[in-house]
UniProtKB/TrEMBL annotation, chain A:
UniProt-recorded name of the protein: NADPH--hemoprotein reductase
Chain coiled-coil ranges: none
Keyword Isomerase found: no
Domain FAD-binding FR-type: residue ranges: 485-598
Keywords: Flavoprotein, FMN, Membrane, Transmembrane, Transmembrane helix
Organism, scientific name: Jiella pelagia
From TrEMBL, chain B:
InterPro entries: DUF2271 (IPR014469)
Protein name: DUF2271 domain-containing protein
Organism encoding this protein: Jiella pelagia
Top-level division of the source organism's lineage: Bacteria
Cleaved signal peptide residues: 1-22
One Pfam family here: DUF2271
UniProt entry keywords in alphabetical sequence: Signal
Length: 735, 156
């Protein structure tokens, strides 16, 4: 709902909002330029002195105006010819032309009415309304995406366009809300929809009938500092019944030209003050710095427009289209999805189609949009939840658990939770489990017992679907065929072989980067953007199930590199390790945003064994900033499977790698990488105390051994691997 | 050309008993190229003692800007009822406003003066831009305004 509220005004009003923002940004420069360029009055100068100086220079002076920038303009008649000039207050002499800037006038008319009069004003007001809707709905989306308002500035992951969109929005949103609300207020004021017209001060009927009282002797003028002046109008020459009109920040007054007495005065009304403040906030006239800041923020609009369109297009391609999803308030079945990479959405689409086919009204949405108070017709809620990392919420389920825990009570609508995960990981379906546990703790009625789907198994899903059908009393057959990822053909460029002598034949395979179309480069899809530590899925010949390998290179390296060990009887590893340069494989990219070095300068402790060196080597190769890196590498024999042995010495010389600590598991004194850690305990503990980040890659047993060893090493410091994990300073990629 | 039949009803003693005592008068106002946005113009009549009698035309639709038509605003207290039904668009620089009204015969040769106040956004207000006595002889004689009006004439 919120997303639609963000998307459609955004796409429809894109041109209008862009014109508004660009012209507004250009206009924001003028008040600042005027502020700098205008001759300013000396402190303490009174209107009486200023007016006397101007009258001395221009005896026919009719009106003196002071702009919020401090610029003073005088208008006069000299022998029947009108004149005007910007005044130097110190002398009362004109120093510059008072004609308004034609560029500013042109921009103003474009900005407020597209040169189309009242119709244009209404169109631009609609643009401002669209901007306000976009800003507010966008802010809600950002808060939802980052897991709550408290995490407004949380780090982002995902393709560049989306990150740029949110990064700009997080800063610009405040300015855009201010500019668009003030714009709507000003339009309402222009069309007389607000009672901000101000009081009318009647001209006094009784005047002295005298003329020629000296300006510098008028008490009211002598008491008014120039800083408060807005306008001083002189009486018509020769009309003894006319008066001086003085307008200041406080109000309007009439002065007798024969006695200088204040004949009548009135204050600004509250509405007038509000409208003036809003005018100042919108135009920057009188607040030129704020104006410049708002103008700068407005420049974010075209950036957000372009990236927003890219995000929308990429989203249309990425996720399976779910047709006929009912509004949440009207659906009988609520299907909420917690997905990181999008594959769970595919299952949701299958379930949605089957339930809809069975005559149900089904709403499909992200778990992060959980809002039980809106589910007025719902009879069941089904959660399909994947897991991110070690039990964290996946992207589309951010904030769900917080909201459930914060609720007074669970909804009365029966709930089914289906977890999606990979049984080879210890945190199998951990997020879905914590959701199910939290629901139970809240007393949420159960529709079906908690169940899981292992490695996107269509069989698991079909089995669960039959159980769901039984619970609903309908015949439900779920035949899920995963949407195949968009693959590329990669050509092997070179290979280096290791480990044959120690019964661990391993190859470093280097593929050429495929040609990336401009479209993908802009959206960061596919191989347009990848980093060491991300995953590449290889579809072996004769199988539709992909195998995942960690990337040992990033986009900037110019090639795609992986490290593969030949598994006994392994289909994919067998094919890969037999590959000769020039041969090709079918592959796709799978994001793995959790496993990459942060952007800080704190030391890195990289720990890996066997093929686990791959992504770690990629991190070292990409360490152009010479951040301190300590690499712990476990191998069987340095003479046989010292992967990246040659490069490592070069990297050390270049300063990309600070220290290499190896552990050799074959030979007289077998040592594993965790033993090497223990041997270096003092320094490891010191590094961690100093804020180092630990990254582990390799087999499951090795990772467990490393975690144990680290727990021992860190015990004296009071830190544990668990605490480090919670801080994001301890990450694993295990297989 | 804008034509109005009997829309003009003078507020004080000059309401029209019947149309036979009125005649069509064309007011032609041409602005000079002052280099600004459209001008607001208030056309109104004062009597021999300078008191406001009634309005003939208001060029400019947004009443919040009427305060810049200083003399008219002072005389009427900004009362928009004075220009109900006789309000049109503001007049662009270099453009001509031509209106035809049925004016009471009694307005001519009786010391009445026709005034025009003008105002342009971000430029000086120009009250009493034009002030011409209403006489049969004066008809057809163009006069120059002080700031924005290149020529004004009334023709019977």
């Amino acid at each position: 709902m919120i997303r639609a509220l963000h998307r459609w005004p955004g796409l429809l009003a894109l041109a209008l909002v862009t014109i508004l923002a660009l012209s507004g940004a250009a206009l924001s420069v003028f008040p600042a330029a005027e502020r700098i360029g205008a001759p300013q009055a000396e402190a303490g100068l009174t209107v009486a002195t200023l007016a006397s100086r101007i009258q001395a220079a221009y005896p026919g002076v009719e009106q003196i105006r002071r702009a919020p920038s401090g610029r003073i303009t005088a208008y006069w008649f000299d022998r029947g010819t009108p004149g005007a000039a910007v005044i130097e207050p110190a002398t009362g002499e004109g120093v510059a032309s008072a004609d308004p800037s034609q560029v500013e006038r042109w921009l103003t008319n474009l900005h407020r009415s597209l040169f189309l009069g009242d119709g244009g004003r209404i169109a631009m007001a609609a643009g401002a309304a669209a901007m306000l809707i976009l800003a507010i709905s966008g802010a809600v989306l950002v808060a939802r995406r980052s897991g709550g308002w408290r995490h407004w500035f949380a780090r982002l992951r995902g393709p560049l366009a989306g990150r740029l969109h949110v990064e700009v929005a997080r800063i610009a949103v405040i300015g855009l809300v201010l500019s668009s609300t003030t714009a709507l207020w000003m339009t309402a004021s222009t069309f007389d929809l607000l009672p901000d017209g101000g009081a009318i001060l009647a001209v006094p009927a009784e005047v002295s009938g005298e003329t020629g009282f000296a300006l510098d002797r008028m008490l009211a003028l002598g008491q008014t500092p120039v800083a408060e002046l807005r306008e001083l109008s002189f009486p018509y020459p020769g009309d003894a019944t006319d008066v001086f009109t003085l307008k200041t920040d406080r109000g309007t007054g009439y002065l007798d030209q024969g006695t200088g007495a204040l004949l009548a005065c009135t204050d600004l009304t509250g509405w007038e003050r509000v409208s003036e403040t809003i005018y100042m906030l919108h135009t920057g006239q009188g607040a030129s710095t704020l104006g410049l800041v708002l103008g700068l923020m407005a420049l974010g609009v075209p950036v957000m427009g372009a990236t927003g369109v890219l995000v929308w297009l990429a989203g249309r391609n990425g996720r399976p289209r779910i047709r006929g999803s009912q509004p949440a308030g009207r659906a009988e079945t609520l299907l909420l999805v917690g997905s990181e990479s999008g594959s769970t959405w595919g299952f949701a689409a299958t379930l949605h189609a089957a339930l809809t086919g069975a005559g149900q009204g089904v709403h499909v949405g992200p778990m992060s949009a959980f809002a039980p108070e809106r589910y007025s017709r719902a009879q069941r809620i089904i959660l399909l939840a994947a897991t991110y990392g070690d039990g964290a919420a996946p992207a589309s389920a951010k904030g769900f658990l917080d909201r459930l825990r914060a609720a007074d009570r669970a909804p009365d609508i029966p709930l089914a939770v289906l977890g999606f995960g990979d049984r080879s990981f210890p945190a199998y379906c951990a997020f879905a489990r914590s959701v199910a546990a939290a629901a139970k703790a809240k007393g949420w009625p159960e529709l079906m017992p908690f169940d899981t789907v292992d490695r996107q198994s269509p069989q698991d899903f079909a089995r669960w679907g039959r159980a769901l059908g039984d619970a609903l009393g309908i015949d439900l057959e779920l035949s899920h065929r995963p949407v195949p990822p968009k693959t590329e053909t990669l050509t092997l460029v070179s290979r280096r072989d290791y480990g044959a002598e120690v019964q661990a034949p391993t190859a470093i395979l280097r593929f050429a980067q495929p040609r990336v179309p401009l479209w993908q480069r802009l959206t960061g899809c596919g191989f347009a953007r990848f980093a060491a530590g991300e995953l590449i899925g290889i579809l072996p010949e004769g199988s539709t199930v992909p195998r995942l390998y960690s990337l040992a290179s990033g986009r900037s390296d110019g090639f795609i590199e992986i490290v593969v060990k030949k598994q006994p009887g392994g289909l994919c590893s067998g094919q890969l390790t037999a590959l000769e340069p020039g041969a090709t494989v079918t592959a796709f990219l799978r994001r793995n945003p959790g496993f990459r070095p942060d952007r800080g300068r704190a030391p890195l402790i990289l720990i890996g064994a066997g093929t686990g060196i791959g992504p770690l080597a990629g991190f070292v190769r990409g360490n152009a900033r010479r951040r301190p890196v300590h690499l712990f590498f476990g191998m069987r024999h340095p003479g046989s499977d010292f992967l990246y042995g040659e490069e490592i010495s070069a990297w050390r010389e270049e300063g990309r790698l600070t220290r290499l600590i190896t552990a050799v598991s074959r030979g007289t004194r077998p040592r594993y990488v965790q033993d090497a850690l223990r041997g270096d305990a003092a320094q490891v503990a010191q590094l961690v105390r100093d804020g180092a980040r630990v990254m582990v890659c390799g087999g499951r047993e090795m990772a467990a051994g490393v975690a144990d060893a680290l727990a021992e090493i860190l015990a004296p410091t009071g830190l544990t691997p668990k605490v480090l994990k919670a801080e994001g300073r301890y990450v694993e990629d295990v297989y | 050309m804008k034509s109005l039949l009997a829309a003009f009803a003078l507020t004080t003693a000059l309401t029209l008993p019947d149309l036979a005592m009125a005649r069509p008068v064309t007011l032609t106002t041409t602005l000079n190229d002052y280099g600004g946005d459209g001008a607001y113009l208030a056309l109104y009549v004062t009597d021999a003692s300078g008191d406001y009698v009634g309005s003939l035309w208001m060029a400019g639709g947004k009443s919040k800007y009427y305060k810049h038509l200083t003399d008219w605003y002072r005389a009427t207290g900004g009362d928009t009822a004075q220009v109900n039904g006789i309000t049109g668009a503001s007049v662009g620089a270099g453009r001509t406003l031509e209106i035809t009204l049925d004016l009471a015969d009694a307005l001519f040769e009786a010391g009445y003066t026709l005034h025009i106040d003008a105002a342009v956004e971000d430029m000086r207000d120009s009250p009493n831009e034009v002030a011409v006595p209403l006489t049969a002889d004066g008809a057809g004689t163009p006069v120059r305004g002080r700031r924005y009006i290149a020529s004004f004439a009334y023709n019977m």
